[in-house]
Structure formats: C-alpha cells, structure tokens
Amino acid sequence: MLGEKEQLEQEILSLISKTGQPVGCGAISAVLNSRGISISEATVGRVLRDFDHSGYTEKAGYQGRILSARGSDRLTELANREKSLQWGAEFASALQGHTKEQLLEVLIARRAIEGELAALAALNGNGAEKEQLQSTLEKQRSIMENGGGAAQADVNFHAAIAQMAGNKILAMSIELIRQDTQLSPVLEYIRKHVHSLVYIDHQNIFQAIHSGMPDAAKEAMVAHINNLIQDVETYWERRNNK
C-alpha cells in the first residue's frame, strides 16, 4: 500500500484527471470528504500549489487546475508503484511454506512430465484444441501487456496442453504436482522480479505444437522449464545479496 502522502497525491491527481475540466480546491475537498478522507480546502490548496511547482497541474484562470502531461505520468507512476507493493505483499503471503529447494523440486518434476505432454500434444491435438490453445496464449499476452497478473492464464495454458496430450496418467501426474494453487503466483512474481519473458517461451511451445512437431514441442517445453529454474536461482541469489 502507498504511504499516506502518496495516497493523497494519487487521489487528487486521479480526481482532476477524471473530471475532464478545471477543478478547484473546494470541489476537490468536498469530493474527498464524501469518500471519508477528511481534508480542508486550505490543505488541498497547499497540495495543488506543490503540484504546480512539480509541473503536475496547470492553472486554468480562476476555474481551478487541469492535469498536465507530467501529472498524467506521475499518476501512472503511482499506480505502478501501488501495484508493485501489492504484488510484494501477495508474494510474501504466497511464499510462506515455499523454499527455494521445494520450488526447484517441483520444476524438475514438471520438466520431465510436461516435456512428454508437449510432444504428445503436438501429435494428438486437433484443430479446435490448437485454436483454443492459441486463444489462451493471446489472452495471457493481453493481460501481461496491460500489467495484470497472468498466473491463471499460465495455469490454463499448461492445462490445455495436458488435455491435448491424451495421456490420462501423465495428465493426472502433472495435476497432482501443480495442485498447490500458490505456485503459479509465486513463479509469476519471480519472473517479473528478474524480468523474464515467459510469453516468448509459451509462443515457442505453441508454434511447435501447432505445427505438429513433437520433438520441437518437447524441446521448447524443456527450455521453458529450464528458464523457470534459472529464474528461481537468480531471484534467490539477488535476494541473498541484498
């Protein structure tokens, strides 16, 4: 969660942005108080003067302030910071009970099984299943481009491959391994922290499956899991060096 000062900054900048026209101290104070944020008109005035000085707002005569391009950038920066802090809190909660060694054990088991599943999916997947896999991949890409959490999309992508493979024993095995619902959010946080591009891995896997190339599909899946293993190693190395 943002600090008190940054929260107020975000509230006021957001209000000015959404209004779409010049807004003054009295109107801002009234809206914030209606939201349960106790703040006087004089205090809002001081905040707005600070905004003017920082270049976040511009005066529009006696009508009030409008948001500047720099103010819009600041609002985006605060939103991203809030999201980052929220991710950190969620990760700390999700990580409870997950050590580096446990994550690596799971990934090594996944590598062995999901490589085979990808190869079988390339052999056995039908046209409709391949279209569905592509749709899942595109949804993941869209979520990631908009800064959202794509953990569930990641689960759906791998589950679709397991379904396409047509091997019930392998599918049940990977479902058992992935039954810990917190693993995907943990791995997603780690990937973001080390700036890993998981979508590219998934794209490579999809292309091989779509082309009906089992060896290439297995190789792409194994490379993907190896990248996840490296991400976990890199994350813990950086964390220990802090």
UniProtKB/TrEMBL annotation:
InterPro entries: GntR_C, RNase_R_HTH_12, TF_FadR/GntR_C. It comes from the Bacteria. One of its GO terms (molecular function) is DNA binding. Keywords: DNA-binding, Transcription, Transcription regulation. The keyword Transcription regulation applies. Residues 105-227 form the GntR C-terminal domain. Signal peptide: none annotated. Transmembrane segments: none annotated. The keyword Protease does not apply. This is Transcription regulator fadr/gntr c-terminal. It comes from Lucifera butyrica.
